[in-house]
Amino acid sequence: MIRLDKVTKNYEGSGRHAVDSLDLIIETGTTVALIGPSGCGKTTTMRMINRLETPTAGRVLVNERDVAATDPKELRRSIGYVIQQVGLFPHMTIERNVATVPRLLGWDKARTDRRIDELLELVGLDPSIMRRRLPHELSGGQRQRVGFARALAADPAIMLMDEPFGAIDPITRVRLQDEFRQILKKVSKTVVIVTHDIDEAIKMGDRIAIMRDGGLLQYDTPEAILARPANEFVESFLGPDRAIKRLSLIAVASVMAPPAPQDSAVAIKPAASLHDALALILAGDLPGLDVRMDSGETVGYLSREAVLSAHR
Ligand SMILES: Nc1ncnc2c1ncn2[C@@H]1O[C@H](COP(=O)(O)OP(=O)(O)O)[C@@H](O)[C@H]1O
Ligand SMILES: [Mg+2]
User: Fold this and answer.
1) All structural domains of the chain
2) Residue having the nearest C-alpha atom to atom 18 of ligand 1
3) Among residues 45, 139, 153, 172, which one has the fewest Cβ atoms lying within 10 Å of its Cβ?
4) What are 190's strand-pairing partners?
């Protein structure tokens, strides 16, 4: 668990609080998205967790231990950190970049080699092709995969990610969001991700912390925030399509009816969202969709009405 206890940060020479008496608890194994307008204190909050910044007041506890009392080097090796510009060492091959922390930890060559292969495969890169390349020979998305692999190298319990997809084109971004989310669930990390993109926060976060002016406006699950924004600022931040966003959080399987007697023209998978279902229904002007597994078995029927009434 990560616990921020009345944490305040004043930068030298600044008249205002970058972070203002912030209380926040991040449960082990969950992903929390910190979101809010530029300058609201997201990055500062994150950097106080791995001690790249020191609180002016208050405490940051990791597993009930005050990070101020830990060795900063040791702390940072136990916390993966991914930033927008990746920060790969440009003159080092991909394998050496990924091996940064294992080398610091003194792993032997065989163990490090195994780990590099395992990690590159995990993030969807072919080790036989990628190991010897230099960062500038990779696309932005590939570099972000390497940065992610490097942060995971020593299997840290905590991952901090500061706008990790900020510099990635929209199509690659969505793919990386999906893949990273799956990987982080599989390896059950505690994750803090900073973003200014509400759709990214909804997709990645088990909980979303909405910040403004160094403080917390609302901290809850995406479902709860979309259903009950705490105030007008949160509501406007969520956007006018809040009701449609909620559909992206509801699985087809949770509202479908038993299979219809007749096949419909278009099918959708049970794990797909109602948002995707609505898109198909509108595109084909359909009364509903068959719900079909990859195996081809039809397991249900999703009517247009079922989609439209799901948010109630
Ligand atoms: N190193 C710094 N020195 C002085 N002021 C800073 C520094 N870093 C951030 N700030 C200020 O602190 C506030 C919060 O910044 P930041 O945490 O980077 O916000 P966000 O990540 O939400 O955009 C802003 O007003 C910013 O200008
Ligand atoms: Mg920032």
Assistant:
1) 2-246 (3.40.50.300), 250-308 (3.10.580.10)
2) 43
3) 139
4) 158
